[in-house]
Amino acid sequence: MEQPALGISDGIYAYKHLCEGGIDIHEIVVKKSSFRILLYYIGTICLLATVCRTLLSKEGLYLSSLWSISFAGIVAKCLRCDPVKKESLVIMPTFGVQLEQHFWSGRVRRKFVPIGKILKPVLNECVTPVICYWSLALLLRDEYELMLVFMKLRPPAKMLVPIWNALCAFKNSDSTRRLADPHPKDSACSPESKLKT
Amino acid sequence: MVSDFFFPNFGGVESHIYYLSQCLLKLGHKVVVMTHAYGNRSGVRYVTNGLKVYYVPWRPFLMQNTLPTLFLTLPIVRTIIIREKISVVHGHQAFSTLCHEALMHARTMGYKVVFTDHSLYGFADAGSIHMNKVLQFTLADIDQAICVSHTSKENTVLRSGIAPEKVFMVPNAVDTAMFTPSPKRLSCDEIVIVVISRLVYRKGADLLVEVIPEVCRLFPKVRFIIGGDGPKRVRLEEMREKFSLQDRVEMLGAVPHAQVRSRLISGHIFLNSSLTEAFCIAILEAASCGLLTVSTRVGGVPEVLPDDMIVLAEPAPEDMVRAVKKAIDMIPGIDPQVMHLRMKKLYSWDDVAKRTEIVYDRAMQSSTTNLLDRLPRYLTCGSWAGKLFCIVMIINYLLWRLLEFLQPAEDIEVVPDIGPLHAQIQRDDLCEAQENQI
């Protein structure tokens, strides 16, 4: 049964929480901003103009023209829109979680993490040379590195906290289930099944 | 607390920041340390008692100092100050570029700033002239400054031109719980002199090369233990070979700080031959372990210990040998336990934290001024330098305004305040006790 979506929104991202047939879906959607699209086109036009000017001029390729192309390339890269349209986390009780990346081009990249592999979800503070931000990551069994839930997007902590709470509840319910029934029926590992074989 | 010098790097400034932060946490303040990344140690770390450390991924470029970029550290400094709800920015060490930049940015944003100078610098050589100019810039608009000795205060005031009434003297201290004397008193049949320092020119390693053979010649029952490493180690090794002192001079190499106490308690006398010292925590550590100190009379060293715990000498080999002789004669009358108890009363980090708190209160009470009122303070730095500093501050202000437009302070999320770890543990214990009662 589908439940109505709950959401939090800020200037760049919108958070949506859906429940469909017992499956929990948490989505972070990038808001379409005409200003950012305009900046993207400006950056692309600058780069194309610089390249064309260099190629069509009679002087040929000099160090200064290479510098101007590189600089225009950096500006275009900074101004480009993120190719990711939304990232979502799908929690499937007793199975695991699926991390999805939806691109503006329509392509979807999915990654499934079984429940047994997840040790704990953690909220991390990340520090770069210019900014600090929060990230949600999964501690995985037998893995050295953390797995980021949202790989490209950087939603604020107020959006990550309900997702982290949902992951913790999902993990706790699995631990409770394992404690209650360490040897579930018809399992290949149960003593009864071993006697039968 | 901002400085290029923090753990895992080890030294006087690093331990000062650490111990001061721990004691301020105990007093109920929120303390955050900002330093640069050390190798793979990058990002946010929590050390003892929940002290939060930001290892900002700016790589050091020279002697553990971040590359000076003037304005590029503004975004990260602004973000950290806003998200942690900082009220006072406290910079440490004149040689730290990150400290100077952070203080400049904090001042631009209207925060209160305090600076602690840990070292003495000269006036004549090119390096000192440049360093003093940078210090003049930083201290031109500081709220309060702290120096670790009266000599250091005089040096800082002369170098920077800051008003003396803005400078407080708060000495360093020593962890007397860690540096305790040996439970068993050492026999006086053989006198052991301990030297633990970096073997560099500034620490007087060349003096040791002259003093050790003479002392060994005059006093057959004296033995030396030398801990530490550095470029001058080779000279000491050569001295050992030249005078055949291999059985009387033991070279330990670099000694981890956790093992310093065990090395100190194996000796009777601690020898410090520094050519310049603003304070010298090493002699505090030695005195706390019950050793009699022989030291050069330089900088702030005469202010550190009472006269019956230290023998001072001029930084010349003959005078140092005389001082060692006097110390050897004093050894039978020295009780390490009494010395340790006196050090406990004289120096404690809790006292340093309380005195630093007073400085913070004074800084918070100072008036808030806008850019136009602050610019004339930089003009006093020099005819050309003053104008250059004004331009730098104006550009910094404009960049800050641009950042405020692109990313308003309201959009920067504040970090939830969990408080110091010992308070949390107490809260958990209280909850558990209440649950048990129910």
Walkthrough of the structure:
The complex is a heterodimer of chains A (197) and B (438). Helices cover 36% and strands 35% of the residues of chain A. Chain A has 197 residues and is α+β, with helices and mostly antiparallel strands. In chain A, the strands form two sheets. Chain A has a six-stranded antiparallel beta sheet, with helices on one face. A three-stranded antiparallel beta sheet of chain A has the order 7-8-9, with helices on one face. Chain A starts with a strand and ends with a helix. With 438 residues, chain B is of the alpha/beta class. Chain B folds into two domains: 12-173 and 351-420, Glycogen Phosphorylase B (Rossmann fold); 191-346, Rossmann fold (3-Layer(aba) Sandwich), CATH 3.40.50. Chain B has 15 helices and 15 strands. Chain B has helices at 12-26, 74-83, 97-108, 126-139, 150-160, 205-218, 233-242, 260-264, 281-288, 317-330, 336-346, 349-365, 371-379, 385-406, 421-437; strands spanning 32-36, 43-47, 51-56, 60-62, 65-66, 88-92, 112-117, 144-147, 167-169, 191-196, 222-227, 249-253, 269-272, 292-296, 310-313. In chain B, strands 12-11-10-13-14-15 form a six-stranded parallel beta sheet, sandwiched between helices. A four-stranded parallel beta sheet of chain B has the order 6-7-8-9, sandwiched between helices. Chain B has a three-stranded mixed beta sheet with strand order 1-3-2. The radius of gyration of chain B is 24 Å and the shape is globular. The two termini of chain B are 43 Å apart. Classes of the chains: A alpha+beta (197), B alpha/beta (438). The A-B interface holds A 10-11, 125-132, 134, 156-158 and B 42-44, 54-58, 72, 75-76, 79-80, 83, 411, 413, 415. Chain A: Residues 88-150 form the Phosphatidylinositol N-acetylglucosaminyltransferase subunit H conserved domain. Chain A: Pfam families: PIG-H. Chain A: One of its GO terms (biological process) is GPI anchor biosynthetic process. Chain A: It comes from Digitaria exilis. Chain A: Residues 176-197 are annotated as: Disordered.
